[in-house]
Write a structure and sequence with these properties.
Elements: E1 2-3, E2 15-16, E3 19-20, H1 23-30, H2 43-54, H3 56-69, H4 73-100, H5 107-114, H6 116-157, H7 170-187, H8 192-220, H9 227-232, H10 245-259, H11 265-268, H12 276-303, H13 309-313, H14 323-336, H15 340-373, H16 380-383, H17 393-407, H18 409-412, H19 414-421, H20 426-440, E4 452-453, H21 458-475, H22 492-509
Antiparallel strand pairs: 1-4, 2-3
Helix pairs in contact: 2-8, 2-12, 2-15, 3-10, 4-10, 4-12, 4-20, 4-21, 5-6, 5-20, 6-7, 6-15, 6-17, 6-20, 6-22, 7-15, 7-17, 8-12, 8-15, 14-15, 15-17, 20-21
Length: about 525
């Protein structure tokens, strides 16, 4: 592995008289793009955006029920490292490509450059659409999960389900979701210097929040699980008709893999990051690595406060089946006679999820800006415009609006909604894998590395990443309950397959006649 300019295959700096240009700026110019966004982010700020989107407080809290139901402690504790290790392979491969092509377009631009002239337009097209729709699905999922958590917080604050607490209707939850997206769009309309501040605050909140909760909850709880339970107990009582332990383990991995997504944000922020050809890769790798460590600590801390899995998953408890909320609430209620402390802890998680959604909209908007700059989206000339603060303002509000529309499916059917947000994991990872696949096949000999590269291990790491994505795409499409009915069917392959059909059909009917891939906007 190499991380230094002296080993790079690409020039990383040009001179303007006696004044050296930022290496990321120079490389962007070489790639044929003007510097239209303000380049003001440090490596810490770049890391903060990805770390805030990964947000272990968000992913683990949201899908802790899934982890408990499918395998319990063993799957969460050990599955986290399995998913984390393979995610690092994906991240390392992406970081290597990012170093060579530090543009806001990220994945779809990489695919175009790596697939070769013949396949570049189609490769760019399919990667870009999977990436942007996957990102919109992530924002939808994150902000809707925050709306649901607010619903639970209100329920517990008004007495809990067994104490006559207020249970918000699905329409109220949707109103929460819309309000959250509106606030995220407003924040993302601010100059990048403000977003940098919020991004670093979000990263700090996630770090401190994890350490506080992982220590506080098991300490306050009057009943704690034994180390044997946390490290060896495998829950097979899932109530879904599945008894095979390997099958259960696979389904339980979803919690970990869902959490460890969104780190492509570091790539999408490269046109606003100083020395992006080195700091972009650093942002990707560090966000994954630190998330793996602190996420495992959070899982351990919370699981030590788990003593009755069936009760935590029961819709008859005070949190109406929201496992972590019930853990927090019971920990304080059992010791102090009141669950207020637990509700405050849920507030800490809620703020983390809010920051996660904020950073997700930031990443969405930069992807939409770059994709429309190359003419791939309807009304492209509008979405890639920037305002006086050098913010792609229309792309920001477009991302918020589409994420709101995607959540509207929940009003008709939660099954339909879950199918749509499944694109957040599988669809996004397919977009991650495509440029890596082109890197290890079509561009195996022609790829020119940047300052960060994996040296002779690049091909091997890339193949491991591609195989892992192919594996989880199949595993997470398996049925999650038996017998299979229209209500228990896993609609992930339907959603992802439907997206593929739409994207390819759009290409055949229209795109192939006018989309030529990334278009430079300066004369190189």
């Amino acid at each position: 592995m190499v991380f230094g300019r002296e080993k790079a295959g690409l020039p990383t700096q040009v001179q303007n008289g006696d004044v050296p240009l930022d290496s990321g700026h120079a490389r962007l110019h070489q790639l044929g793009y003007k510097q239209e966004l303000k380049r003001d982010l440090s490596v810490i700020s770049n890391f903060a955006f990805s770390f805030s989107i990964i947000s272990v407080l968000t992913g683990i809290t949201t899908l802790y029920n899934t982890g408990l139901r499918y395998g319990g402690p063993v799957v969460m504790v050990y599955g986290w490292f399995i998913a984390g290790a393979f995610t690092m392979f994906v991240g390392l491969s992406m970081a290597e490509i990012c170093s060579s092509y530090p543009t806001s377009g990220g994945l779809y631009y990489w695919s175009a450059k790596l697939a070769g002239r013949k396949w570049a337009p189609f490769a760019s097209w399919i990667t870009g659409w999977f990436n942007i729709v996957g990102q919109w699905a992530v924002t939808t999922s994150v902000d809707f999960s925050l709306a649901q958590l607010i619903q639970v917080i209100i329920l517990l604050s008004t007495g809990g389900k067994n104490g006559g607490g207020y249970e918000a209707s699905k329409y109220v939850v949707m109103a929460f979701h819309g309000g959250i997206l509106f606030m995220h769009a407003l924040i993302n309309s601010l100059p990048i210097s403000w977003l940098s501040f919020f991004g670093q605050l979000a990263a700090a909140w996630n770090l401190v929040g994890v350490f506080v909760l992982m220590i506080l909850i098991p300490t306050v709880a009057t009943e704690r699980a034994s180390a044997k339970f946390v490290f060896t107990y495998f829950n097979t009582d899932n109530g879904e008709g599945i008894s095979n332990k390997v099958y259960i383990f696979v389904l339980g991995l979803l919690m970990s893999q869902y959490t460890l997504t969104g780190y492509d944000a570091s790539a999408h922020m490269t046109e606003e990051t100083k020395n992006a050809d080195t700091n972009g890769p650093k942002g990707i790798i560090s966000s994954i690595g630190i998330s793996i460590v602190v996420g495992w600590g959070y899982i351990l801390g919370i699981t030590f406060a788990v003593t009755n899995i069936p009760y935590l998953l029961s819709s008859d408890n005070d949190a109406s089946g929201y496992a972590i909320a019930e853990v927090f609430y019971l920990a304080f209620k059992s010791r102090y006679g009141s669950g207020v402390g637990g509700i405050i802890c849920l507030g800490v998680v809620a703020v983390a999820i809010f920051f996660c959604g904020m950073s997700s909209v930031t990443s969405n908007s930069r992807m939409a800006y770059a994709f429309s700059r190359d003419g791939a989206m309807p009304l492209s000339s509008l979405w890639h415009k920037v305002n006086k603060q050098e913010v792609p303002i229309y792309a920001v509000w477009l991302s918020a609006f589409i994420s709101f529309c995607m959540a509207l499916t929940s009003l008709g059917s939660l099954v339909a909604f879950q199918a749509m947000v499944s694109i957040a994991t599988i669809g996004l990872y397919i977009a991650y894998a495509l440029p890596i696949f082109f890197r290890v096949t079509l561009a195996r000999k022609s790829f020119v590395p940047g300052p960060f590269n994996l040296g002779r291990y690049g091909i091997t790491v890339g193949w491991v990443a591609v195989i892992w994505v192919a594996t989880i795409s199949v595993l997470f499409s398996l049925p999650v309950a038996y017998p299979i009915t229209k209500d228990t069917l896993n609609y992930t392959p339907v959603a992802v397959g439907g997206l593929f059909i739409l994207v390819v059909s759009y290409w055949i009917v229209s795109g192939r006649f006018w989309f030529t891939g990334p278009v430079t906007n300066i004369d190189t």
